[in-house]
Each structure stands twice: as structure tokens, then as C-alpha cells.
Amino acid sequence: MSQLCFYLPPFSSDYAGACSSLFDLEGMVIIHDGACCSRNYVGFDEPRWFGHKRPIFCSGLREVDAVLGADDKLIEKIQKALQTMDRPQFIAILGSPVPTVIGADLQGIAMELEDAVGIPSFGLSTTGLSYYNRGIDLTAAALVSRFTQPRTGGRPGTANILGLTPLDFSDNENAADLRVFLETAGWRVGCSFMMGASLEDIRDAANAEVNLVVSQSGMGLARRMWQRWRIPYVVGTPAGTDHTALAERIKRACETGVCIPMGEASLEPGGVLIVGEQVLANTIRERLAAQYGLHGVTVGTFFGLDRDLAQPFDLDLPSEAALVELIQSGRYQVLAGDPLLQEIPGSERLDCFSIPHVAVSSKLYWHDYLRFASAEMEGLLARIAQAGHKCAGETGCAV
């Protein structure tokens, strides 16, 4: 019952994150489910679906198939579907709650399928019981393990982008703005995991000089690429109009060969709470401190707090109830996050600022998404800082 939500909808699941990661690739994706999970993804978790259809199939799992474990039937269905489309570059089979409960061996099914059709195939152990960032991480790991070629000396001046999907960045100009930022700073974009990437980009990803991690879902891949190929990574995303500090960190990482996470240091929390995707929230915190002198901003997330990126007082929110308790505790006077957070009782007493998040509110606000690297975001930062300084003056919050 601790996961029961009264004010917020169900968040995007791991299979949605996996599907979103595979959307731009020339592959075939099968969600092994009875239709509901597939419908949730295409109808509520994918801003690109309504203009760009992709070969994402539902297995049509039925009770008798689940009881009997009819894996051969799934393989037959996939073979028939292949006859109706151009030959894909790969086939991905994703799990949902029912295959998880019955213990379906998706990787084993994928191996049988690959033997039968001769197309690279892999199974992803998504369950529908975890959040989208886990699905993104699983997919990136599978793609790199299967397709990325060994490092051949590297390509100086090349940067990969890790953790980029519409579930965090929507389908506006944010992805393009990231590329512009890197190119303006003197970098060539290698592989953009996973918006705008191609299989050729993924094959060559190990030759990048540096990785830019723009969301928490890219941290697992960043760590794996550091351990395997010693590619340093920098964590952060452009926010507002001044991106100098991030560009300097990328340059420093390449010069030193050292990974540079993030975190604006503060001894104690103040009265400002940002709830959302951890890397974006951290970036906002850093800009508020560096540009506006507002310190002690607390970051909270529902999607698993990466402690390497967190301050000691940051919050790993296990449930909606935990956020309700925080909002009603009186500890915070300013709240920034998805507009639906303002539906929680007690938020009406706070200064609230909207930062839509597709993984939280789905299609309700994905047309209202901010361009993060823009004057619009800079104006939002200024307003949050003004409210934060006001609360500090009135209540003695840390500044």
C-alpha cells in the first residue's frame, strides 16, 4: 500500500524506457504482454509516436500461453510479423509483469529466435514494476555489449551524449540544443544515446574522447564505459543561457582523464525543494548557486537517488506519501517540479514552479516542455532564486 497514489499518476515504467531508447533505431521491438503495456507506451509515454510510427509489436499474451509457457508460439508470431516489414537490424523482446511472474526466459527466447531468423536478437528483463530509467540503462547496456566495437585509439574531439530520451527531454528542441552546445564548445557529437543515434554510431561509441551524461539513466553506461575503455565522463546538462561551467568541466575531464560528477556543495538544506530527474535538478541547483547565490537547494527524486551525484540532504522519495509528508512538514517554502505536484495538499502554501516531466505527467504537459538551454529557463531560474532568497530572509533558510 506504500506505493498507492492519490494525486499522481503511475510513472513511466522500465519497458517504456526501453522502447523509448530503441525508437530511433532500425529494429523490431516486441513487448511480451497482453496489449495493455504496449498501449500505455504508445499512448502515454512516447511524444514521438504521433508523428513517427515504429515497428513496436505486442505479443498478444493470453492466459493459456502464460500457463503453458508457449515460447514457441511467440517465436512463430515474430516470424510472421517479419514477413510484413523490411528486415530489421535487430530484434528486442521486452518483458512485462506477467512474463516476470511466470519466469519467462526472454534472453533464451531471443537466442532461439536468432537461430531461426538470423537476425541479432536480445531479451531485456523489463518487468513493468520498475521505473523508466532502469529500462533505459538495460537497453544501453545490451546495445553496447552486442554492437559496440573495441576501442581503436579513440577519436579526439568526439563526445557521446548518454541518457537522452523524450521521457526526460520531451520531443521539442532539447536534443538539438544539446548537440549545438557541444558543437559550439568545439566537440563533434559521436553517439547520442538514445535520441538521434544509429547502429553505426553505437558501433563506434567506444572511440569517443569523453561522455556527457545528461540524465541519471545514463550513469550506468558512463560507469561501464569508464571501466572498460577509460572514457571519462562529465555529468550535467545545459540549463539557462550560461553554459560556460559545463563546457569547462568537459574540457578538464579530457585534459586530466578524470570523471567529473556534479554537486554544488552546501552544509545544510534551505527552503527550496526540486523534485524531478536528478541530473537536471542538480544542474538547476548548480546554476542557482553560481549565478544567483542561492545555496542549500534540496533535490528529491522518485526514480532512485544516485549517491555519487547527491548532497547528504538530498531525498530518495520512495512514494507519493513521502512527498506529501515533506510538503506538509513546513521544511520547504519553494517547490519546483512537474505541474502535477501542485495537486498535492499543502503545495498551495508554497511558491511553486512548473518543470514538466513526461515520465510523471505523460501527455498532459509534454507540449509545455521547457527548452532547458534557453532564456526561458534562465527566467525560471531567476524566479526560483528570487523566491528562495525571499524565504531565506523571512525564515532564516540557508543562503
Task: Describe, in plain words, how this protein is organized in 3D.
Strand 7, helix 11 (219-229) and strand 8 form a beta-alpha-beta unit. The longest helix is centred in the C-terminal third of the chain and has 21 residues, at 375-395. A five-stranded parallel β-sheet has the order 11-10-9-12-13, with helices on one face. A four-stranded parallel β-sheet has the order 2-1-3-4, sandwiched between helices. With 399 residues, the chain is of the alpha/beta class. The mean pLDDT is 92. The protein has 16 helices and 13 strands.
Condensed summary:
It is built from 16 helices and 13 strands. The chain has helices at 14-22, 36-45, 63-68, 71-82, 97-102, 106-117, 132-147, 166-169, 174-184, 199-203, 219-229, 244-256, 278-292, 320-328, 358-361, 375-395; strands at residues 28-31, 56-58, 91-94, 121-124, 155-162, 188-192, 208-213, 233-235, 272-275, 298-301, 315-316, 334-337, 351-354.
What is the fold's blueprint, element by element?
Elements lengths: L13 H9 L5 E4 L4 H10 L10 E3 L4 H6 L2 H12 L8 E4 L2 H6 L3 H12 L3 E4 L7 H16 L7 E8 L3 H4 L4 H11 L3 E5 L6 H5 L4 E6 L5 H11 L3 E3 L8 H13 L15 E4 L2 H15 L5 E4 L13 E2 L3 H9 L5 E4 L13 E4 L3 H4 L13 H21 L4
Parallel strand pairs: 1-2, 1-3, 3-4, 5-6, 5-7, 7-8, 9-10, 9-12, 10-11, 12-13
Helix pairs in contact: 1-2, 1-7, 4-6, 13-16
Q: Biggest sheet, in brief?
A: 5 strands, parallel
Strand numbers in spatial order across the main sheet: 11-10-9-12-13
Count of discrete structural domains: 3
The CATH homologous superfamily of the largest domain is named Nitrogenase molybdenum iron protein domain
Percent helix: 40-55%
Structural class: alpha/beta
Query: Termini distance?
Result: 38 Å
* Number of beta strands: 13
Radius of gyration, in Å, reads 22 Å
What is the name of the CATH architecture of the largest domain?
3-Layer(aba) Sandwich
Query: Beta-sheet strand percentage?
Result: 5-15%
Provide the CATH top-level class of the largest domain. Answer: Alpha Beta
